[in-house]
Amino acid sequence: MPCGSVREVVGLASAQSSDPRVARPRSGDQLVFASGDNVGTVITLADVPLEALVTAHPMDLKMRLVRDGSRLNQILVLGCAPLS
Question: What is the pLDDT of residues 52-78, one digit of tens each?
């Protein structure tokens, strides 16, 4: 493989890693629905039934950017009963 090709691949890899949709979840991100009719809608406690799993992605509220560019950002939310 010519050196020019290696540089292009390295450049492509670094360009992909700078994509904010691939960035890891950050403090202050909200969870939004990852699938279904409410994709991109912020998840509230009322949206998660007891003992149900909901697939979510983190979203930067300031930029309105959903971090869905990596499967590693997919989060499972489990509905649990409050302690009495």
Answer: 999 999 999 999 999 999 999 999 999
Which own/partner contact pairs does 40-49 have at CB distance under 8 Å and 24+ positions apart? 40/66, 43/77, 48/77, 48/78, 48/79, 49/79
Q: What is the pTM of this model?
A: 0.74
- CATH of residue 67's domain is 2.102.10.10
Q: Total domain count for the chain?
A: 1
User: 84 lies in a domain?
Assistant: no
User: 13-58, pLDDT tens digit by residue?
Assistant: 444 568 999 999 999 999 999 999 999 999 998 999 999 999 999 9
Look at residue 67 and tell me if it is in a domain. Answer: yes
**Chain centroid, CA 19 distance in Å:** 12
